[in-house]
TrEMBL record:
This is ATP-binding cassette domain-containing protein. Residues 4-241 form the ABC transporter domain. The keyword Nucleotide-binding applies. GO terms for molecular function: ATP binding; ATP hydrolysis activity. InterPro entries: AAA+_ATPase (IPR003593), ABC_transporter-like_ATP-bd (IPR003439), ABC_transporter-like_CS (IPR017871), ABC_transporter_ATP-bind (IPR050166), P-loop_NTPase (IPR027417).
Protein backbone atom coordinates (compact mmCIF):
# COMPACT_ATOMS: atom_id res chain seq x y z
CA UNK A 1 0.00 0.00 0.00
CA UNK A 2 1.19 3.51 -0.78
CA UNK A 3 2.50 5.25 2.31
CA UNK A 4 3.29 8.74 1.12
CA UNK A 5 1.54 10.44 -1.77
CA UNK A 6 2.53 13.77 -3.29
CA UNK A 7 0.08 15.07 -5.86
CA UNK A 8 0.76 17.90 -8.24
CA UNK A 9 3.11 19.69 -5.86
CA UNK A 10 4.06 23.16 -7.02
CA UNK A 11 6.24 25.64 -5.13
CA UNK A 12 6.88 29.24 -6.15
CA UNK A 13 8.75 31.97 -4.31
CA UNK A 14 7.03 35.17 -5.42
CA UNK A 15 6.44 34.60 -9.09
CA UNK A 16 9.49 32.33 -9.51
CA UNK A 17 8.45 28.69 -9.87
CA UNK A 18 10.86 26.27 -8.16
CA UNK A 19 8.93 22.99 -8.35
CA UNK A 20 6.03 22.15 -10.60
CA UNK A 21 3.67 19.21 -10.89
CA UNK A 22 5.63 16.84 -8.68
CA UNK A 23 3.77 13.54 -8.39
CA UNK A 24 5.09 10.74 -6.22
CA UNK A 25 3.94 7.61 -4.47
CA UNK A 26 6.26 5.93 -2.00
CA UNK A 27 5.89 2.63 -0.15
CA UNK A 28 6.63 2.51 3.55
CA UNK A 29 10.20 1.49 4.31
CA UNK A 30 11.69 2.80 1.05
CA UNK A 31 15.05 4.50 1.05
CA UNK A 32 14.59 7.21 -1.56
CA UNK A 33 17.68 9.02 -2.76
CA UNK A 34 17.27 12.37 -4.53
CA UNK A 35 19.71 14.01 -6.93
CA UNK A 36 19.50 17.06 -9.16
CA UNK A 37 21.33 20.21 -10.16
CA UNK A 38 22.18 22.72 -7.49
CA UNK A 39 19.25 25.04 -6.85
CA UNK A 40 16.65 22.85 -8.55
CA UNK A 41 14.53 22.54 -5.41
CA UNK A 42 15.60 19.32 -3.66
CA UNK A 43 15.84 20.91 -0.20
CA UNK A 44 12.60 22.75 -0.85
CA UNK A 45 10.93 19.40 -1.52
CA UNK A 46 12.26 18.02 1.80
CA UNK A 47 10.98 21.09 3.66
CA UNK A 48 7.56 20.51 2.12
CA UNK A 49 7.65 16.84 3.20
CA UNK A 50 8.62 17.96 6.70
CA UNK A 51 5.74 20.40 6.84
CA UNK A 52 8.15 23.26 7.50
CA UNK A 53 6.80 25.01 4.42
CA UNK A 54 3.53 24.80 2.55
CA UNK A 55 3.46 23.99 -1.13
CA UNK A 56 1.95 26.68 -3.33
CA UNK A 57 -0.25 24.00 -4.87
CA UNK A 58 -0.90 20.28 -4.53
CA UNK A 59 -1.15 17.96 -1.55
CA UNK A 60 1.02 15.59 0.47
CA UNK A 61 -0.59 12.78 2.42
CA UNK A 62 0.68 10.00 4.63
CA UNK A 63 -1.58 6.95 4.62
CA UNK A 64 -4.18 9.08 2.91
CA UNK A 65 -4.16 11.82 5.57
CA UNK A 66 -2.82 15.27 4.56
CA UNK A 67 0.34 16.00 6.55
CA UNK A 68 0.16 18.40 9.48
CA UNK A 69 0.74 22.08 8.79
CA UNK A 70 3.78 21.99 11.08
CA UNK A 71 6.63 19.53 11.60
CA UNK A 72 5.71 16.76 14.02
CA UNK A 73 7.50 13.90 15.75
CA UNK A 74 6.58 11.55 12.90
CA UNK A 75 9.07 13.27 10.61
CA UNK A 76 12.67 14.00 11.56
CA UNK A 77 15.26 15.90 9.57
CA UNK A 78 19.06 16.02 9.51
CA UNK A 79 20.88 18.73 7.57
CA UNK A 80 24.38 18.82 6.15
CA UNK A 81 25.44 21.38 8.71
CA UNK A 82 25.40 20.06 12.18
CA UNK A 83 22.15 20.87 13.87
CA UNK A 84 22.93 19.75 17.41
CA UNK A 85 22.94 22.12 20.38
CA UNK A 86 26.47 23.43 21.05
CA UNK A 87 25.92 24.08 24.78
CA UNK A 88 24.80 20.50 25.52
CA UNK A 89 26.98 17.40 25.81
CA UNK A 90 26.41 14.29 23.69
CA UNK A 91 24.21 12.85 26.45
CA UNK A 92 22.41 16.18 26.89
CA UNK A 93 21.69 16.41 23.17
CA UNK A 94 20.32 12.87 23.13
CA UNK A 95 18.08 13.48 26.14
CA UNK A 96 16.68 16.66 24.66
CA UNK A 97 13.98 15.15 22.40
CA UNK A 98 12.40 13.35 25.39
CA UNK A 99 12.74 16.44 27.59
CA UNK A 100 11.01 18.64 25.02
CA UNK A 101 8.29 16.09 24.47
CA UNK A 102 7.72 15.26 28.12
CA UNK A 103 7.90 18.79 29.48
CA UNK A 104 7.14 21.43 26.90
CA UNK A 105 7.19 24.29 29.40
CA UNK A 106 10.28 23.54 31.52
CA UNK A 107 12.11 21.41 28.97
CA UNK A 108 13.24 19.16 31.85
CA UNK A 109 12.13 15.77 33.12
CA UNK A 110 12.33 14.44 36.65
CA UNK A 111 12.30 11.08 38.43
CA UNK A 112 11.21 8.00 36.55
CA UNK A 113 10.67 9.78 33.24
CA UNK A 114 14.13 11.28 33.40
CA UNK A 115 15.64 7.87 34.07
CA UNK A 116 13.74 6.40 31.10
CA UNK A 117 14.94 9.26 28.86
CA UNK A 118 18.50 8.70 30.04
CA UNK A 119 18.31 4.99 29.30
CA UNK A 120 16.95 5.65 25.81
CA UNK A 121 19.70 8.24 25.21
CA UNK A 122 22.38 5.82 26.40
CA UNK A 123 21.07 3.04 24.16
CA UNK A 124 21.14 5.40 21.19
CA UNK A 125 24.63 6.61 22.14
CA UNK A 126 25.75 3.01 21.98
CA UNK A 127 24.04 2.47 18.62
CA UNK A 128 25.69 5.49 17.01
CA UNK A 129 29.06 4.66 18.58
CA UNK A 130 29.36 7.74 20.79
CA UNK A 131 29.30 6.13 24.23
CA UNK A 132 32.95 7.01 24.73
CA UNK A 133 32.12 10.70 24.11
CA UNK A 134 29.06 11.09 26.32
CA UNK A 135 30.32 14.16 28.20
CA UNK A 136 31.88 15.96 25.25
CA UNK A 137 30.38 19.06 23.66
CA UNK A 138 29.75 19.23 19.88
CA UNK A 139 32.77 21.51 19.36
CA UNK A 140 34.93 18.71 20.79
CA UNK A 141 33.61 16.16 18.25
CA UNK A 142 34.72 15.43 14.69
CA UNK A 143 32.35 16.18 11.81
CA UNK A 144 31.34 12.52 11.52
CA UNK A 145 30.65 12.30 15.24
CA UNK A 146 28.50 15.44 15.12
CA UNK A 147 26.48 14.00 12.24
CA UNK A 148 26.06 10.71 14.10
CA UNK A 149 24.78 12.72 17.03
CA UNK A 150 22.35 14.64 14.81
CA UNK A 151 21.02 11.39 13.31
CA UNK A 152 20.75 9.82 16.77
CA UNK A 153 18.84 12.85 18.01
CA UNK A 154 16.41 12.67 15.06
CA UNK A 155 15.91 8.91 15.54
CA UNK A 156 15.08 9.19 19.23
CA UNK A 157 11.77 10.72 18.25
CA UNK A 158 11.13 7.45 16.38
CA UNK A 159 10.12 9.18 13.16
CA UNK A 160 8.34 7.14 10.52
CA UNK A 161 9.94 9.39 7.94
CA UNK A 162 13.54 10.52 8.13
CA UNK A 163 14.60 13.38 5.86
CA UNK A 164 18.31 13.75 5.21
CA UNK A 165 19.62 16.80 3.39
CA UNK A 166 23.14 15.97 2.22
CA UNK A 167 23.91 14.55 5.65
CA UNK A 168 27.35 13.27 4.71
CA UNK A 169 28.35 16.04 2.31
CA UNK A 170 30.93 17.59 4.60
CA UNK A 171 32.63 14.32 5.64
CA UNK A 172 35.82 12.71 4.41
CA UNK A 173 35.40 9.54 2.29
CA UNK A 174 36.25 7.06 5.07
CA UNK A 175 33.90 8.65 7.60
CA UNK A 176 31.27 8.90 4.89
CA UNK A 177 31.41 5.15 4.24
CA UNK A 178 31.07 4.44 7.98
CA UNK A 179 28.09 6.77 8.19
CA UNK A 180 26.44 5.15 5.17
CA UNK A 181 26.79 1.75 6.83
CA UNK A 182 25.33 3.12 10.05
CA UNK A 183 22.38 4.63 8.19
CA UNK A 184 21.64 1.33 6.46
CA UNK A 185 21.74 -0.53 9.78
CA UNK A 186 19.38 1.95 11.40
CA UNK A 187 17.06 1.98 8.39
CA UNK A 188 16.84 -1.82 8.40
CA UNK A 189 16.31 -1.93 12.12
CA UNK A 190 13.59 0.72 12.30
CA UNK A 191 11.78 0.13 9.00
CA UNK A 192 11.44 3.89 8.61
CA UNK A 193 11.01 5.58 5.24
CA UNK A 194 14.03 7.68 4.31
CA UNK A 195 14.36 10.54 1.82
CA UNK A 196 17.97 11.54 1.31
CA UNK A 197 19.28 14.36 -0.87
CA UNK A 198 22.83 13.84 -2.06
CA UNK A 199 25.17 15.38 -4.61
CA UNK A 200 27.05 12.11 -4.87
CA UNK A 201 25.47 9.99 -7.58
CA UNK A 202 27.42 6.93 -6.49
CA UNK A 203 26.08 7.31 -2.98
CA UNK A 204 22.56 7.69 -4.41
CA UNK A 205 22.86 4.41 -6.32
CA UNK A 206 24.60 2.64 -3.49
CA UNK A 207 22.14 3.50 -0.73
CA UNK A 208 18.79 3.90 -2.41
CA UNK A 209 16.03 1.44 -3.06
CA UNK A 210 14.74 4.14 -5.37
CA UNK A 211 16.42 7.12 -7.03
CA UNK A 212 14.60 10.31 -7.98
CA UNK A 213 16.15 12.84 -10.35
CA UNK A 214 14.84 16.40 -10.16
CA UNK A 215 15.27 18.53 -13.24
CA UNK A 216 13.50 21.07 -15.38
CA UNK A 217 11.59 19.69 -18.30
CA UNK A 218 10.84 23.01 -19.88
CA UNK A 219 13.51 25.60 -20.55
CA UNK A 220 13.18 29.11 -21.83
CA UNK A 221 16.64 30.43 -22.77
CA UNK A 222 15.37 34.04 -22.45
CA UNK A 223 13.98 33.46 -18.95
CA UNK A 224 15.92 30.66 -17.18
CA UNK A 225 13.70 31.01 -14.10
CA UNK A 226 10.46 30.67 -16.06
CA UNK A 227 9.86 27.02 -15.16
CA UNK A 228 10.28 24.85 -12.11
CA UNK A 229 11.76 21.37 -11.73
CA UNK A 230 9.93 18.10 -11.38
CA UNK A 231 10.82 14.41 -11.09
CA UNK A 232 12.25 13.45 -14.46
CA UNK A 233 13.51 9.98 -13.58
CA UNK A 234 12.24 7.57 -10.97
CA UNK A 235 14.54 4.56 -10.88
CA UNK A 236 13.92 1.46 -8.77
CA UNK A 237 17.23 0.25 -7.40
CA UNK A 238 18.67 -2.75 -5.85
CA UNK A 239 20.74 -0.92 -3.25
CA UNK A 240 24.17 -2.55 -3.21
CA UNK A 241 23.62 -3.17 0.47
CA UNK A 242 20.40 -5.10 -0.11
CA UNK A 243 20.19 -8.85 0.15
CA UNK A 244 18.31 -10.46 -2.78
CA UNK A 245 15.34 -11.37 -0.58
CA UNK A 246 15.08 -7.99 1.16
CA UNK A 247 11.93 -7.26 -0.78
CA UNK A 248 12.57 -3.65 -1.75
CA UNK A 249 13.49 -4.67 -5.27
CA UNK A 250 12.54 -7.59 -7.41
CA UNK A 251 14.51 -8.69 -10.41
CA UNK A 252 11.25 -9.00 -12.29
CA UNK A 253 10.22 -5.48 -11.27
CA UNK A 254 9.05 -2.81 -13.70
CA UNK A 255 11.49 -1.12 -16.10
CA UNK A 256 14.72 0.00 -14.48
CA UNK A 257 14.23 3.58 -15.62
CA UNK A 258 10.79 5.04 -15.74
CA UNK A 259 9.42 8.41 -16.57
CA UNK A 260 6.50 7.11 -18.57
CA UNK A 261 4.13 7.57 -15.65
CA UNK A 262 4.75 11.29 -15.65
CA UNK A 263 2.12 12.76 -17.97
CA UNK A 264 3.67 16.18 -17.63
CA UNK A 265 6.94 14.87 -19.01
CA UNK A 266 5.30 13.43 -22.10
CA UNK A 267 3.34 16.61 -22.67
CA UNK A 268 6.24 18.96 -22.01
CA UNK A 269 8.43 16.98 -24.36
CA UNK A 270 5.93 17.31 -27.14
CA UNK A 271 5.55 21.03 -26.38
CA UNK A 272 9.27 21.47 -26.61
CA UNK A 273 9.39 19.92 -30.03
CA UNK A 274 6.84 22.35 -31.41
CA UNK A 275 8.21 25.30 -33.42
N1 LIG B 1 12.67 31.04 1.26
C1 LIG B 1 13.06 31.25 0.00
N2 LIG B 1 12.74 32.40 -0.64
C2 LIG B 1 13.10 32.61 -1.93
N3 LIG B 1 13.80 31.72 -2.68
C3 LIG B 1 14.15 30.56 -2.08
C4 LIG B 1 13.80 30.27 -0.72
N4 LIG B 1 14.27 29.04 -0.43
C5 LIG B 1 14.89 28.58 -1.53
N5 LIG B 1 14.82 29.49 -2.52
C6 LIG B 1 15.32 29.33 -3.89
O1 LIG B 1 14.73 28.15 -4.41
C7 LIG B 1 15.64 27.47 -5.25
C8 LIG B 1 15.76 26.03 -4.80
O2 LIG B 1 16.45 25.98 -3.56
P1 LIG B 1 16.81 24.60 -2.87
O3 LIG B 1 17.65 24.92 -1.69
O4 LIG B 1 15.57 23.83 -2.66
O5 LIG B 1 17.68 23.91 -4.01
P2 LIG B 1 18.56 22.59 -3.93
O6 LIG B 1 18.24 21.79 -5.13
O7 LIG B 1 18.40 21.93 -2.62
O8 LIG B 1 20.02 23.22 -4.05
P3 LIG B 1 21.44 22.71 -3.50
O9 LIG B 1 21.67 21.39 -4.20
O10 LIG B 1 22.39 23.76 -3.99
O11 LIG B 1 21.36 22.60 -2.03
C9 LIG B 1 16.95 28.26 -5.19
O12 LIG B 1 17.02 29.06 -6.31
C10 LIG B 1 16.82 29.08 -3.93
O13 LIG B 1 17.53 30.29 -4.06
Amino acid sequence: MTFLTAQRIGVSYGDVPILERVDLRVEEGALVTIVGASGCGKSTFLRILLGQERATSGTIAINGVPIAAEPDAGRGIVFQRYSVFPHLTVLGNLMLPAEFEGSRVLGRLFGRRRRAAREAAEAMMDKIGLDHARDRYPAQLSGGMQQRLAIGQALLKRPRVLLLDEPFGALDPGTRRDMQAMLIDLWRETGMTVFMVTHDIQEAFHLGTRLLVFDKIRHDPQFPAAYGATITYDIPLRGQHMSPDAGAFRLDAEPAVTNAGNPFLSRATSEETQP
